[in-house]
Amino acid sequence: MNTPKFIGLDNYTRLFDGTDQYFYNSLAVTFKYVILRVPLGLIFSFIVAFLLNMEFIRGKSIFRTIFYLPVIVPAVASSMIWIWLFSPDLGLFNSFLEALNLPTLNWLYSEETVVPSIVLMSLWGMGSTIIIFLAGLQGVPRSLYEAAIVDGAGAMRKFLHITIPMMTPIIFFNLIMGSIGAFQVFTEALIMTQGGPNNASLFYNYYIYREAFLFGEMGHASAIAWILFMIILIVTAIFFRTSKSWVFYESEV
Amino acid sequence: MLRSRRISQITVYFFLLIGAAFCLLPLFWLIRSSLMTSIQIFEMPPKWIPAPFQFQNYVEALTSIDFFRFFRNTLTITISCLAGALISSSLGAYSYARLSWPGRNIFFSLLLASMMLPSAVTLIPTFIGWRLVDLINTYFPLIMPVWFGSAFDIFLLRQFYSSIPKDLDEAAYVDGAGPWTIFYRIIIPLSKPALIVIGLFSFMNSWNDFMGPLVYLNEESKFTMALGLQMFQSLHSAQWHLLMAASTFVIMPVIIVFFIGQRYFIEGITLTGMKG
Amino acid sequence: MKKAKRLNALALSAVFTMTVILTACSSNEGSPENQNGIKPPKEGEQVTLKFSFWGDTIEKKTVTEALKRFEQETGIIVEPMHVPSDYLTKLTTMVAGNVAPDLGYLSSGAALSWAEDGKLLNLTPLIESDPDFKKEDYLDQIWYDYAPGKTIGMSTAVEGYGLMYNKDMLLDAGVELPPTEAGKAWDWDTFIEYSKKLTLDDTGKNALDPAFNPDKIKQYGFQYDPYNMMAAVVSNGGNFLTEDGTGFGLTEPEAIEAIQKLADLMYVHHVSPTPLQTKSLPDMALQTKKVAMTVSGNWALQAFAEQDFNLGVGVLPKLKESNTLLDGAPTVIFSSTKHPEEAWLLYKYMADPESVLPLIAGGLWMPLKKSWYTDPELISKWASGNKAHPEGYTESFMKQTLENGIRTPGFEVKNLTKINALVTPALDLVWTGKETAEQALKGVEPKVEPLIQGYYGR
Questions:
Q1: Is the pLDDT at C10 greater than 60, yes or no?
Q2: pLDDT of residue B51
Q3: B57 within domain boundaries
Q4: Domain residue ranges of chain A, discontinuous segments joined by +
Q5: How many Cα atoms sit within 13 Å of C9 on the Cβ side?
Q6: Chain A residues with CB inside 8 Å of C95's CB?
Q7: Which subunits sit against B, judged by 3+ Cβ pairs under 8 A?
Q8: Domains of chain C, with CATH numbers?
Q9: Hey, which family's this protein in (chain B) (predicted)?
Q10: What pLDDT does C176 receive?
Q11: pLDDT tens across B133-180, in order?
């Protein structure tokens, strides 16, 4: 946090020539997270929303509220639970694995499993995505389903030919927002791992934060932030390009 | 046929119940911990039921910080943001989804791009901006941005609006309606579930926002509940039992608002179903 | 409305893009501004000072009350600014926005580098021109000098390290209680033997028993946070940097030996929980009898005093010499203050143990003034006769810290935050038993060396 001075592109060359020890590492860790988290998150929350929306389900209001709870409960409480669930010694997950005679894992505390563990945690906090899908499912006109039943369509065909196509604008939204969010994953690293063990969860955004506020390197932090910006921009642009072939809008956008 | 349907219904219930149990865990844990001594909370293997119940935690939590003032402050901010989010994002999204104007796509890209820079680097420039207009230590930096539309909300609503058949608008135009009438008579009623989602998210965001109040507010009399919760934690120690009790208070209104809000989803169905 | 929104979006994006681009192209090697000129306040002007600090509810209450009393005694208005978390983020933002408080707490790394950049006031002129203030009244170790003859002031409090234990567990196991005098400190072998005696497996066998099962330990003899490893390093005569400040001290033989000995407690002697096991241990390990002895800073006494067990304290076991770590974080005056003289008055007031006595007697802090370590009447105000300061405290913590307290690297090592960002992951490999101390530290040494810039204030 020092007096600024113009130094041209030095902050950028420092990244690519390897002077900055963490740049490539944090890129790799972040991509690993995004590639796991975005598709899993979409599929998982779509399924939950779809099940919650089935006509025969009773107590929908209660279920919806419950599935949203992990988002509401403050991180101080939920991170304590996760520390317990993931505890290698006495944790619920390892007790479960032991009961099934499977090898136990070190979860957050080993370089190999820390990112998948954080993905697992984030799936549990998918309440917002589920709610958006639910709201979308409400908007699928019932007349379409009725017409399909008249045509003799089964559950699977209704799902594939009515639900999915009608939901593509919302799926697209969740894909975009999920990716933008996943590239900026931060809180888990800050609260639970501090980037460890051995930088295996040094997510890009945490790395930026650390440069800016712990190392006082605001200029450097801004430089690396622009690279993240470009990456997200390119990924989003690609998604928008491809969207023309699979997202169906009722009206031209 | 009936039997297999029965079985598949039971399977669905089974998965939902397992998921629900997992999702209830944090709330249960919070409440259970809020009724324990700080020692019991950490006992391993964990105890599920407090013995004895420490109801005095709640009294202590609510009296050791100025909780009701924080509650009032939070409510002020939350309601101001809620109104802003609904008004600005529904109008903005209408414009992006239904009206055509030159440069619309470029502006939409800019809007999305505003979400792509991490807050770690935008915090200080934004703060300096608010200081230049001398609004540090007021609620304006927390409320005003929402009134200019949040990218997330506008994008979400745009997606919903564009799934409303355009025939409806066209029929209305033929009847002599202008864009405002269409917005008010057709778009808003048909996108109720989405507006409720926006409202819920906006409520949640300002209720739990922590970084904004932390950076912009200096006087304790202006603090919000999210800041108040942090007072039970410090570098080396935390009064976990009080933190949990106070947290329970903080989230109850959110749960109630959510429970009430999501019921309007049902209404959305019938409306869309009728007209669609 | 629509148009306005578009314009706004455009304007905002533009401003915002410009700002970030500009910051991205700036470096940190600017010339320090010199704003240390002291202007006396105008006659009759009402002076208001903003004091920023962190801390739990107890600390908040005591500090706020102290500030109130100062206000009543001097007529200078003080606005307390309690920052409940993310302190550095908030302060960095305020300083960047040119609305820094007048004075307040700061973490040591940020404080020293901000001082170099002219953001903090050099207190030396104030100290020298103040007839009421004698530097030698305060502990010698607590000063943060950022250049020779230039200081940002003192630590907010003193934090000495020592051994804390559950007395009943030691008595049950028939282990002699840890000594409280430096001259009688346990040597490492004695310490290991007693720790083994206190480590029990699920069948109740201790770690000295040949049939002891290290995979099923239910009670550990000794627990330490790797954060405290410097205590062993200094006891073995090592330090973070070499004495001349040009080399990486942790790769010197004495440091490597000390760190290896700590790791061996986990993986050779099985008397300490590994970091993996610590994650599932409660914060209350002493009270719940999961752990018999632990090493921590003085602050832990505040929490232990509230728990229900028979707390004992002793000096740390020694490797070569009996000493301890002295930790802290400074209180500083920001150079942007318009009232340096009044800020200095408040600074002195808060440094007086009398002003913050509840925190000192409560076990969170140790006092800054030497007399509170030597004058029996003052000692009795805090270091004895209360639950946070059990029998033997005056010897094992108070005297040991005053006489043999070695400053933590945070007081003087330049660039420490960045060096630690490399050292911590390397040491993770040691604490998880994947590499020896020598492999890990020698492995990271080439990366650390370019970052070494010596000591502040020398």
A1: no
A2: 83
A3: no
A4: 10-58+127-246
A5: 25
A6: 1
A7: A, C
A8: 48-158+328-351 (3.40.190.10), 159-327+408-451 (3.40.190.10)
A9: Belongs to the binding-protein-dependent transport system permease family.
A10: 94
A11: 999 999 999 999 999 999 999 999 998 888 888 888 888 889 888 889
pLDDT confidence tier of residue A104, bands split at 50, 70 and 90: confident
Whether the pLDDT of residue C280 is over 70: the answer is no
Residue of B nearest to A237 (CA): B109
Q: Looking at residue C7, what is its pLDDT?
A: 45
Query: Distance (Å, rounded) from C-alpha A229 to C-alpha A224?
Result: 9
Residue B205: give its domain's CATH number: 1.10.3720.10
Distance between CA atoms of residues A229 and A222, nearest Å: 10
The CATH class for the domain spanning A10-58+127-246 reads: mainly alpha
Cβ distance A136 to B160 less than 8 Å, yes or no, reads: yes
Query: Which one of C266, C279, C423 makes the best mutation probe of the A interface by having the most chain A beta carbons within 10 Å?
Result: C279
Residue partners of A58: CB distance under 8 A and separation at least 6: none
C55 phi-psi bin (left φ>0, alpha ψ -120 to 50, beta other): left
At residue B6, the 3 state secondary structure works out as: helix
Within 13 A of C144's CA, how many CA atoms are on the CB side? 36
Q: Looking at C101-115, C243-257, C286-300, which range is the least confident one?
A: C286-300
In angstroms, what CA-CA distances link C244 with C62, C149, C456?
A: 41, 19, 12
**For residues C318 and C188, is the Cβ–Cβ distance under 8 A?**
yes
Residue with tokens 């010339």: C31
Mean pLDDT of A219-239: 94
What local confidence, expressed as pLDDT, does residue B267 receive?
52
Tell me the C-alpha distance between C214 and C217, whole Å.
6
Give the whole-angstrom CA distance, residue B159 versus residue B170: 19
Q: How far is CA A124 from the centre of its chain?
A: 10
Looking at per-residue confidence, does C273 or C22 come out higher? C273
Structure tokens at C125: 């002129």
- Two structure tokens written together for B101: 């104007």
For residue B147, is it within any domain? yes
**Cα–Cα distance measured from residue C308 to residue C287, given in angstroms and rounded to the nearest whole number:** 7
Note whether C99 contacts B: Cβ–Cβ < 8 A. yes
Portion of chain C with pLDDT greater than 90, in percent: 79
- Residue of B36, B37, B41, B42 to mutate for C, most C C-beta atoms under 10 A: B42
Q: Residue C125: how many CA atoms within 13 Å on its side-chain side?
A: 10
Contact A45, A126 (CB under 8 A): yes
The answer to the question of residue B240 being in a domain is: no
* Measured distance CA(B265)–CA(B255) in Å, rounded: 16
B48: confidence class by pLDDT, cuts 50, 70, 90? confident
pLDDT tens column, C312-334: 999 999 999 999 999 999 999 99
Spatial CB neighbours of B111, under 8 Å, sequence gap ≥ 6:
B96, B151, B154, B155, C9
Chain A touching partners, 3 or more CB pairs below 8 A: B, C
pLDDT in tens, B241-263: 888 899 999 999 999 999 988 88
Residue that has been written with the tokens 């599920």 in this structure: B48
DSSP output for A21-68:
SSHHHHHHHHHHHHHHHHHHHHHHHHHHHHHHT-TT-S-HHHHHHHHH
Look up the domain containing B95 and give its range: 65-231
User: What's the pLDDT tens digit per position in C159-173?
Assistant: 999 999 999 999 999
Alpha helix locations (H) across C103-247? 108-116, 124-128, 167-173, 188-197, 230-235
Provide the mean pLDDT of chain C. Answer: 89
Parallel, antiparallel or unpaired: strands C103-105 and C48-53: parallel
Between positions 184 and 243 of A, the ones with CB within 8 A of B are 184, 186, 205, 208-209, 212-213, 218, 221-222, 225-226, 228-229, 232-233, 236
What pTM was estimated for this model as a whole? 0.87
Give the closest of A11, A91, A106 to C24, CB-based: A11
Write down which chains contact chain C via at least 3 CB pairs under 8 A: A, B
Amino acid in position A65 = T
Between CA C346 and CA C80 the distance in angstroms is 12
